[in-house]
Write a structure and sequence with these properties.
It is a single chain. By secondary structure, the protein is α/β, with parallel strands linked by helices. Helix content is about 30%, strand content about 25%. Strands 1-20-21-22-24 form a 5-stranded mixed sheet, with helices on one face. Strand 12 and strand 13 form a beta hairpin.
């Protein structure tokens, strides 16, 4: 039975749904618990990357925009494996729109198998470009049963990516090298991120959204709004050799899309340029909490704007590494902490009504495919399959891994929770809940709130979970 906030008191609900193992199913290893800590003195690192470019004809962004017709630049899954402190830890960023529910679990499981670890010690995050796949296997089964809807994801292609990733990680761990030092740095990115929800009435209600691209001069003229202006980098060293750099920045990564041209877009292009310059260092890019942040103030959706945004992102990457604060890891500790949450579904989501909407062949494709994700989420919650939050602590650095399209407020909140630590946040992990606004924004409406699959109580659950795993 699905767990609704109205079924229990607020206190009981939080107690039942925070940091618990769902009945009959869990991603946590039975001997693991929710935290593991050890020494970083024997830490080793392995790097991997593999191609995840979809074939011609594959759906983009869930199946309601033009499918792949040609490839401007390939899509990649890029990551690292940390060994030498308990079971291996895997961090991976994927140039896809999203990995939802069962699809996300299968990715984590495959990479865990390659590394010789357990899925609870694997964090997989999508960069969230839109001319790319958005994979939900249950949604694919739902639309396939209709017989007249475009695929959500081609299952054969999806499984090939799992096999390729499993093999790539397995090869990588055989070529690991020591980690002796950790470097941290940040650089301000100028003229990229802007808040989408800046046009409001006197009561705070959202009037218009400044999206990934915008040509409305009045919206463009408004302030950037709430963003995190800094791109943060955590670099792993073997002596003087920089082996891997993990980069974190919060913005929707689209300049233009829906034209059938597969691309890693401006954030991926900037990462690839940096990678080409430093082939001996693995550059990994994670998108932060960007549910209400995009490039709309600075992007008119033109090819020229993509070039400009790419240059600005590249400049931010370089700036973040220009003066890395490098520390010796000999006496440092390393910890991996997890928390499970089972958030309440939106009370407006009714399975029978959603199924009827999907089956109604007079509806537009977007109004049939998109509800398949809603129905998938409800079915997941009926099985009480939780969302897993995780955090990696290395010395004074804390890497936080969150699900879905989180609002920027969560990222800033995480930094306030640990003001004396270098906190980096990756969102777009398990995309099952879709958008996750902060609870104060639900009454203000707007697009993001309209496609949030959970009640406002998810804010309390995630905040409590972040507090737990960052402490």
């Amino acid at each position: 039975m699905a767990l609704y906030a109205s079924d229990v008191s607020r206190r009981d609900f939080l107690a039942q749904t925070l940091l618990t193992t769902a009945a009959g199913w869990s991603l946590l290893a039975p001997d693991q618990g929710h935290a593991a800590e050890g020494s970083a003195g024997e830490l080793r690192i392995a790097t991997f990357r593999f191609d995840v470019t979809p074939p011609k004809g594959h759906s983009c962004c869930g199946g309601w925009i033009k499918p792949i017709e040609l490839v401007d630049d390939p899509l990649e899954a890029v990551g690292i494996v940390l060994l030498g402190s308990g079971k291996p830890i895997v961090l991976c960023a994927v140039d896809w729109t999203g990995l939802l529910n069962e699809a996300h679990v299968q990715w984590r499981t495959a990479l865990a198998q390659g590394a010789g670890t357990t899925p609870d010690r694997v964090a997989v995050h999508c960069v969230h470009q839109h001319n790319a796949p958005m994979a939900c296997l249950e949604a694919e089964r739902i639309v396939a049963a209709e017989g007249d809807l475009p695929h959500i994801v081609m299952v054969d292609f999806f499984n090939r990516c799992l096999d390729t990733g499993r093999a790539a990680v397995e090869r990588a761990v055989k070529q690991s090298r020591p980690v002796t030092h950790l470097g941290t740095g940040q650089g301000k990115v100028v003229g990229v991120a802007s808040n989408r929800r800046v046009s409001r009435d006197h009561d705070g209600k959202v009037l218009a959204m400044r999206g990934s691209a915008c040509k409305d001069e009045q919206l463009i003229a408004l302030d950037e709004g709430l963003i995190d202006p800094f791109l943060k980098t955590v670099a792993f060293f073997d002596g003087d050799q920089k082996v891997a750099s993990l980069h974190y920045y919060a913005t929707h990564p689209m300049s233009y899309y829906a034209d059938g041209r597969c691309s890693s877009d401006f954030v991926g292009l900037a990462r690839k340029q940096r990678q080409q310059e430093e082939p001996g260092c693995q550059h990994v890019y994670f998108t932060g909490c960007s549910g209400n942040v995009a490039a709309g103030k600075y992007n008119d959706g033109s090819p020229a704007a993509r070039q400009t945004l790419t240059k600005r992102m590249y400049d931010g990457l370089v700036a973040s590494e220009s003066k890395l604060d490098k520390v010796d890891l000999k006496s440092a500790t390393i910890a991996w902490k997890t928390a499970e949450i089972l958030p309440p579904p939106r009370s407006s989501l009714h399975a029978e009504m959603i199924a009827q909407q999907i089956a109604n062949k007079t509806n537009a494709v977007v109004n049939r495919n998109r509800p398949s994700y809603m129905l998938s989420w409800l079915r997941r919650l009926e099985k009480r399959i939780p969302i897993v939050l995780s955090s990696l602590h290395v010395g004074g650095v804390k890497l936080l891994h969150l699900p879905a399209e989180m609002f920027i407020e969560y990222q800033l909140r995480a930094q306030r929770l640990q003001p004396d630590r270098f906190v980096c946040t990756a969102a777009y992990g398990d995309g099952g809940p879709w958008y996750i606004p902060v609870k104060e924004e639900y009454p203000n409406g707007g697009y993001e709130v309209s496609v949030a699959f959970c009640e406002p109580e998810i804010d309390d659950l995630i905040t409590a979970g972040m507090t737990q795993i960052l402490s």
